[in-house]
Amino acid sequence: MSDAVNHSRRSFLEKTAAVGAITIAPGIMLHQVASAKPDDQPVTDAVRWGMLINTNKCEDGCTDCVDACNAEHGLVGNNRPETDTQYIRKVTLREKQTGHELSLPLMCQHCETAPCVDVCPTGASFKRKDGIALVDKHICIGCRYCMMACPFKARSFVHEQVRNQTLSAPRGKGTVESCTMCVHRVDKAQVPACVEACTQGEHHAFIFGDLNDPNSEISQELAKHGGKQIRADLKLNTGVRYQGI
């Protein structure tokens, strides 16, 4: 790497550290998205947001959750290739012995012990007290350590110049991004876009709620019928659980 590039990178980091308020999209800042709440109350660990996905109700070929996520975060259009960034993707699992197949929505698992946070050299990858894992685009340097650390391949790098962004979901070329559990909706007491789309499509494969509240729908469903973590052996205590796998 040339001295000019090194100087430019150092200068950028110094300015972002000092200012800490560079806008990613007009009229919005990432810190506002990450911490703003309608009642002006701070995020606390009294709540832990999570999802429960029943793969038995997830229809093969259905892309309602993916389409809703893409639209919500501005991940469509701009002549982008179909294989480019997706915060949620459908994975087909096939059991070798029986041939049984199931369709599984896969996204950031919002781990309690998040490998992406552990390896990030700048603190750009972080976890809110309520369990939602995010990337601060202001201080992400695009090293992609978090992408390598994620066992779910849930993160991607923004190679292209981003245009026509949605104000609620700022993105930036040269940074890493992944599912935010629609934090901008959650902080307004709304469910994530994927959950809403699945419910409106009358599939009802998603349940979203507070894992810390024993009376919440998600906690009661887990207590009655259980739920599994993907790669439970890693002991990450994921915020996303599955039934039917």
Would you write up a description of this structure?
The protein has 245 residues and is α+β, with helices and mostly antiparallel strands. The protein has one domain (3-243): 2-Layer Sandwich (Alpha-Beta Plaits). The protein is built from eight helices and nine strands. It has helices at 3-19, 30-35, 64-72, 115-119, 145-149, 183-186, 193-200, 217-225, and strands spanning 49-54, 88-94, 101-107, 125-127, 133-135, 156-157, 176-177, 206-210, 240-243. It has a three-stranded mixed β-sheet with strand order 8-1-9. Helix 3 crosses helix 7. The chain is globular and about 45 Å long. Residues 1-37 have low confidence and may be disordered.
Quick tags:
Alpha-Beta Plaits; 16% strand; globular; 245 residues; 26% helix; 3-stranded mixed beta sheet; alpha+beta; 8 helices
Provide the low-confidence segments as ranges: 1-37
Number of helices: 8
The helix/strand order is HHEHEEHEEHEEHHEHE
Measure the end-to-end span.
Answer: 46 Å
Proportion of residues in helical segments: 25-40%
Net shape = globular
CATH class: Alpha Beta
SSE layout and pairing:
Blueprint: H1 3-19, H2 30-35, E1 49-54, H3 64-72, E2 88-94, E3 101-107, H4 115-119, E4 125-127, E5 133-135, H5 145-149, E6 156-157, E7 176-177, H6 183-186, H7 193-200, E8 206-210, H8 217-225, E9 240-243
Parallel strand pairs: 1-9
Antiparallel strand pairs: 1-8, 2-3, 4-5, 6-7
Helix pairs in contact: 3-7
